[in-house]
Amino acid sequence: MEIRRQSRHQKTTQKTVGKMIFGLVFLIGIMVLFWYNIKDYQKEEATKTVNSQDHLPEAVAGIIYNKPNFSLSYVEQFEIPEWVSYTLTVGMLNQKKFPREQDFNPDPAISTTSAHYHDYKQSGYRRGHLVPSADMAWNKPAMDATFLLSNIAPMREEFNDGVWLELEHNVRDWARLYKEVDVVTGPVFHDSITVIGNNEVLVPRYFYKAIFTTQNDKPIVIGFLFDQSIDNTDRLDAFVVPIDSIEKLTGIDLFANRYGDWDEEIRLEKSDQIDVGYWPFNEKWYLERMEE
C-alpha cells in the first residue's frame, strides 16, 4: 500500500511539473510573439508615411527623382537639386542606426549625369547634405542615397558644420516632439557665389529649410534662410523667415494644399512670428556651435 501511495504521489508531482513546464513554455511563447509584434509595429510606424509622394513640391527648374524615403528635383544647369523633400518620423529616429559605409558618389540615376566628387576636390567647399544622412541612418539604402551627389551642394565648412548642423539637430528634436514633420530644403539659385569643378557646380549664397507639421490637427510651419557667405553666429531664431518669402525667392510652392483652406495658408505662410511653444530651440545645440 505504501509503495502504491508513493507511486500516485510521484505521478501527481510529475503532472504538476509537466503543467508548470507547459505553462512556462506557453508564457515564453506569448512574450516572444508580443516582442515580435512590437518590433513590427515600430517598423510600421517608422515607414508608414515616408514613402508617400503625395505632398512633393513641383519641379520648377529640375527633374524629380525618387530615392528610398526622400525625393529631389535635380537641376542639370547647376548640378545641384532645387529642393529635397522627405518626411521624418519619431519611429525612424528610434530605429537602430546603420554605420556609414558609403562615400560620396555621382548619381547614376540622373539622366544627364550628376556632379562628380572631383568637382569638390580642393575647391574650398564641403559636400553639404541637403537630406542629412543622420535622418536616414535607420535605413541603409536611404542613408547610402544621401551620399549621392544629387543630394549634395557646396557649403563653406563653417556653415556646414555650424548653424546648418544645429538646425538639423533641431529638426530631429521637432520630429520627436510632433511624431512627424515634413521637410523641404534647398538652395536659392540667384545671387550665387561662384561655380566649382569641371561640371561648374553652382555654389549658392543662400540656403533654405522649411518644416511643416500639425498640432491637434492644426497646421504649423517654420522657415529658415541662411547666407552662407558670412559667419552665422546669431541664435537660430534670428534666421526664421516667412514661408512666403522663401517661395518668392525660389518660385517653389512648398506646402501646397496642406493648410485646409486658402486663408489659413496665406496667414501662416506670411507670418514671421515665432511661437517658441510650437518650435522650441534646443540651447544645447547652440552652445555646442559657439564652442567650436
Protein architecture, described:
The chain has 292 residues and is α+β, with helices and mostly antiparallel strands. The protein is 37% helix and 23% strand. It has nine helices and eleven strands. It has helices at 2-47, 90-94, 117-120, 140-145, 157-160, 163-178, 243-250, 262-270, 283-291, and strands spanning 63-67, 70-75, 80-89, 126-129, 152-155, 180-188, 194-196, 201-203, 206-215, 218-227, 240-241. It has a seven-stranded antiparallel β-sheet. Strands 4-5 form a two-stranded antiparallel ribbon. It has a two-stranded antiparallel ribbon with strand order 7-8. The longest helix is centred in the N-terminal third of the chain and has 46 residues, at 2-47. The radius of gyration is 26 Å and the shape is globular. The protein starts with a helix and ends with a helix. Mean pLDDT is 86; it is low at 1-6 and 34-52.
Features:
single chain; 292 residues; alpha+beta; seven-stranded antiparallel β-sheet; two-stranded antiparallel ribbon; 23% strand
The number of distinct helices, counting runs of at least 4 residues, comes to: 9
The N- and C-terminal alpha carbons lie at a distance of 88 Å
Q: What order do the SSEs take from the amino end to the carboxyl end, as H and E? A: HEEEHHEHEHHEEEEEEHHH
Helicity level, as a percent range?
25-40%
Pairing-aware structural class of the strands and helices? Answer: alpha+beta
Total strands: the figure is 11
Could you say which overall geometry the principal axes of the C-alpha atoms support? globular
Roughly how many Å is the radius of gyration? 26 Å
Mean pLDDT: 86
Largest sheet: 7 strands, antiparallel
Beta percentage is 15-25%
Strand order of the largest sheet: 1-2-3-6-9-10-11
Unreliable segments (pLDDT under 50, ≥5 consecutive)? 1-6, 34-52
